[in-house]
Amino acid sequence: MANGNQPFVQFKNVQKTYDGEILVVKDLNLDIENGEFLTMLGPSGSGKTTCLMMLAGFETPTQGQIMLGGTELNNVPPHKRGIGMVFQNYALFPHMSVAENLAFPLEVRKLTKAETEQKVNRALDMVELGAFGDRRPAQLSGGQQQRVALARALVFEPDLVLMDEPLGALDKNLREQMQYEIKHIHENLGMSVVYVTHDQSEALTMSDRIAVFNDGKIQQLAKPADLYERPDNAFVAQFIGENNRLSGKVTAVNGTGCTVEVAGNAVQSLKVNISGQGDISTLSIRPERVQLAPAPGSLPNIFDAKVLELIYLGDHIRCRMACCGDDEFIVKVPNTHSNTSIAKGDDVRVGWEIDDCRALDA
Amino acid sequence: MAAITENDGLMRAADGTPLKQALARATRMNKARAFLLTTPLLAFILVTFILPIGMMLFRSIEAPEVSEAFPKTVAILEQWDGVGQPSEEIYASLAAEMADPENRFKLGKAGTRLNYIESGFRSLMNKTVRRIKRVDAGPYKEAFIKIDKRWGETDTWKIIRLAGDPYTYRAYLNALDLTQAPDGNIVAQPEIKQIYVTLFERTIFVSIGVTIACIALAYPISYLLATLPSGTSNLLMIFVLLPFWTSLLVRTTSWIVLLQTNGVINDILVSLGIVGTDDRIQMIYNMTGTFIAMTHILLPFMVLPLYSVMKTIPRDHMRAARSLGANPAIAFGRIYLPQTIPGVGAGSILVFILAIGYYITPALVGGQDGQLISNIIEYHMKKSLNWSLAAALGGILLAGVLALYWLYNRIVGISNMKLG
């Protein structure tokens, strides 16, 4: 479908407003490659679902274009887009059996009975529900309904499948299991998937790339590892995973690094999202990158800290400290012999590398 | 209390009583209390609904007047072979019972009852009663025939024999434009007397028509109500419910104001030049008037169940159908419409049953050919005082409604019905 140099799905300067006053999507530009698993991640109200609905054709962009395989979609009605979609509450048709639900997209495409039956059976086998074709959706568990919805969105072999928080209604174990299943189906079938969720671990587990949405804009579009390890701004750093935020003022800039003064301590950090000296900056440090009791001089940043709280979590100990004026400074201490001796109220020293401390916007 | 299973396989409570029994004992108090609370309603329904209807229906098969007035004659007539004239014994018995002063009031009722079967019988009775008292001794046969030669006809006596049965389905026959010939065979009424079947048919057709019109009008508005944001839909809902808060008479009368020959609509049509002054459209005091007014009045009964069903259909269903490749028409026909069937069914059965017994509106705006079966029932209740016929007509109507209900239950299932 898409030729070599053209992205499969393309949002071009898309804007959307419902009431003519507030833009829920602000100047969105996004390219999705053929076969890619892209996740739109963000808090509720960030505009991610609206983007999905515009792509599916249930909302029209107020401004801008959406392209699919090189053709403009704006005036193509939803049923001619050939995009599979999995809805949040599955939207299975309650008056039809599972098999009839799956046959529906094939029947409206006027496939022969034999073809329809064969494809329905294959789709049911794919989600391991081969014996459930005659049941009504109401007779299935939540997880089974989810699989039916998935099978129905895939049975007509679309090149693009949209999923709108499909696992939101499942319990934790089932959700994790389904994440792997969806990922494997994606790997096997090779279609493109646009997946909307507000669950960051789900996004990290499944995606090729993640677009973090906030306030109608993409804050960062990157691979899961990049997103976690190299957040571009304070919102992404805080939204993806846990992170310590230290607020301070930039006192010096040198090359790729900078010095930020936080509560009287000069912290050496990586210059990421600041314009220069005098800026107010938020420093982001991942709790697992903070080292406990480093040898003096072994790290550029070594500060005094006081242990305020210890939470035992089995594989590691979550340690809340007061450090650099922050009472919520979290350090993940691996559960090793040498580390089990720390106690509440201890004065300790903590340290981190320049690369692990990113100076972001305020 | 732990449940213990003993050798007999019954689950038992800790004290050894079977678990089922223990449960029944534990819930008995609650059940009794719940029942007690509904007793007033049960009593009310029994006294004001079931009892009167039962009594009225009983009236449709009860005809004791003749056997009460002439118990002996009726008893002897039973033995009669029905050929030629009956024996002198029968004439004498009838003469005696007619002359009996205690029978004075029963004779009139018996005459009326006989008159239902054969018109002219009441005057025959009155005449004979008046004159037979003066005959002191037999032979009575000749005396009777002298008073009126009809007493010499076999059919006259056959009719008395027929009417002597205190229970009869004759009223039902009449309600279906049939009658019983003197020899007991069921035959059609003379054409001029055949009115009830036509009326039943008209009532059913009007009810079906009103139901269809209500579906057509209510479906889009219910959809709108179910999909609009709640502020707007609440306002719309008030407009739908407004008719409920206005007197039925006021609504019907306003239709008269609108539809009559010199009414608002005709005036507008004339002033627009669409209709000439002399050929104003007759829209009221005929079937059109009945149809329009009934549709308007019954519309909310269709909107409410439809709305409540549509409210439960998630918007995603239509979206899912569209995303799966169905154009709007197919998505509607195969996904949305089937899910609204319980609402359509509930609304239809409600509107149809109300329409089939509709009375005030046809009486006010129906004119001559807009009358329905209820109007004729009212006529027999209040004017002709033929209560057995009125009861029979009502009984047939009730049976028809119950049959429909049964049919609905078979096809759609009553448990699927959703009434707002």
The tally of structural domains of chain B comes to 3
Helix and strand pattern of chain A: EEEHEEEHHHEHEHEEHHEEEEEEEEEE
Count of discrete alpha- or pi-helical segments spanning 4 or more residues of chain A:
8
Q: Rounded to an integer, what's the Rg of chain A over CA atoms?
A: 25 Å
Structural class of chain B: mainly alpha
Proper CATH architecture of the largest domain in chain A:
3-Layer(aba) Sandwich
By DSSP, the count of extended strands of chain B is 4
Q: What report would you give on this structure?
A:
The complex is a heterodimer of chains A (362) and B (420). Chain A is α+β, with helices and mostly antiparallel strands and 362 residues long. Chain A is 23% helix and 36% strand. Chain A has two domains: 9-229, P-loop containing nucleotide triphosphate hydrolases (Rossmann fold), CATH 3.40.50.300; 245-360, RNA polymerase II/Efflux pump adaptor protein, barrel-sandwich hybrid domain (OB fold (Dihydrolipoamide Acetyltransferase, E2P), Beta Barrel), CATH 2.40.50. Chain A contains eight helices and 20 strands. A six-stranded mixed β-sheet of chain A has the order 6-7-8-3-9-10, with helices on both faces. Chain A has a five-stranded mixed β-barrel with strand order 11-12-13-20-14. Chain B is mainly alpha-helical. Chain B is built from 19 helices and four strands. Chain B has a two-stranded antiparallel ribbon. A two-stranded antiparallel sheet of chain B has the order 3-4. In chain B, helix 10 (196-227) runs antiparallel to helix 11 and helix 12 crosses helix 14 (287-311). The longest helix of chain B is centred in the first third of the chain and has 41 residues, at 19-59. Chain B is flat. Chain B starts with a strand and ends in a 9-residue tail after the last helix. The mean pLDDT of chain B is 88. Chain A binds chain B through residues 56-58, 77-85, 87-89, 91-95, 104-105, 108-109, 152-153, 156, 162, and chain B through 314, 316-317, 319-328, 330-331, 334-335, 338-339.
